[in-house]
Design brief:
The protein is mostly helical. The chain has 8 helices and 2 strands; from the N terminus they run E-E-H-H-H-H-H-H-H-H. The chain is 62% helix and 7% strand. A hairpin with a 4-residue loop joins strand 1 and strand 2.
Amino acid sequence: MDQGEIDTGKRRTPICELELELKRGERTSLFELAKALNDVIPLRLCVKAKAERGYELARNLINPIDKAADVHLSSDMTTQEAFRIIGNGCLRQLMANEPAMIAGDVEALHQMRVALRRLRAAISAFSTIVADSDWQKIRSELRWITGALGPVRDLDVFVAEVLTPLRSQNPDESGVLSIFRDF
């Protein structure tokens, strides 16, 4: 357990984190432990190391947006290794954008949707190796969460591309002002 702060000399941010690391044994046991701990104390998954967060803080990047990173595959990789690299990249993009989305950054929401679409595409492309007893449930859950985030993104686009220009063109129009009071 790490408790303290990341301090760049000019900026600092508190940290309180529990690092779970699998030294040996089954991965499922580690996830079961994380779920059990989360039942007692609500936890948030963080995919960024303290050093990475420190560099972001030093550059004054608060909840930065993470876009899809380049995927590096080689011809000597197995299909499973290729899927693991692609899937991990998608999950990292998804989770790295959660803090910015919670803070209200709509671009983070967009990047989370991108990550989910990429993951769904990877699962479809690699369906012959990922199909197991949970495959359909995972696909269904990914479809659900992508669908749940969709209307929020659509509303953001509507506000940015329709309502905001309408307000700029009609700054004193009572009907336009009343729309913005509802937000």
